[in-house]
Description:
Blueprint: H1 10-40, H2 46-73, H3 82-88, H4 100-127, H5 131-155
Organism: Microbulbifer echini
Family: Belongs to the Dps family.
InterPro entries: DPS_DNA-bd, DPS_DNA-bd_CS, Ferritin-like, Ferritin-like_SF, Ferritin_DPS_dom
Amino acid sequence: xxxxxxxxxxxxxxxxxxxxxxxxxxxxxxxxxxxxxxxxxxxxxxxxxxxxxxxxxxxxxxxxxxxxxxxxxxxxxxxxxxxxxxxxxxxxxxxxxxxxxxxxxxxxxxxxxxxxxxxxxxxxxxxxxxxxxxxxxxxxxxxxxxxxxxxxxxxxx
Length: 157
């Protein structure tokens, strides 16, 4: 690859991209979890949750592409395997199919974890004066904060 000269040092680009890799892994894991719950939710809130989960996984599908492209823009390879995501993600994987109320709680926790990951990435982006990553991650954090709030409201917490 040709030398990248975008006003961010190579070490800062690598550090920022490293944080973005964690954000990508968290986001992809949450995407898979949300899609799984969309397929498998049952009970009296089926329709409401089925549709809400679809909105959420659709939004996450677009987000992972934006995050991966930002990593590539910084000159770093984006992770793209289940194995890489499993090693990088802080979102806990759920193997069983939980009850609908538990799905909401699990997804709330997942979104809250992504928010924490965003906060870490923001620190390195601020340090590296990377406004593009700051904007992307700040926007992502806002989406996850709102989604976590909506999920908490759904569960009455």
